[in-house]
Design goal:
With 78 residues, the protein is mainly alpha-helical. It has helices spanning 7-13, 18-25, 29-37, 45-55; strands at residues 3-5, 63-65. It has a single domain (3-76), classed as lambda repressor-like DNA-binding domains (434 Repressor (Amino-terminal Domain), Orthogonal Bundle). A two-stranded antiparallel sheet has the order 1-2.
Length: 78
């Protein structure tokens, strides 16, 4: 089941920097920047819970299922 994270889109749309994200959520710097810069990087269950709790959002707001049968892969930037 291909899933991507939409954390960069979520943060950018709210004017939240990766640094502020890291501080708000209470996660390691590497984790925060990996999630921000790589949509293929998925948060662990505990990190996902921290993000959702910090911003009071459902997981679906930062995770998206990607149809593997689509020819225009979002991971390839098409």
């Amino acid at each position: 089941m291909p899933v991507k994270n939409k954390i960069k889109l979520f943060l950018d749309s709210r004017g939240i920097t990766p640094y502020r994200f890291r501080k708000d959520v209470g996660i390691a710097q590497k984790t925060a920047y990996d999630l921000y810069n790589n949509p293929e990087q998925l948060p662990s269950s505990p990190v996902l819970s921290k993000i959702c709790d910090a911003y009071r959002i459902p997981p679906g707001q930062i995770l998206e299922w990607v149809d593997p049968l689509k020819t225009d892969s979002i991971f390839e930037g098409k």
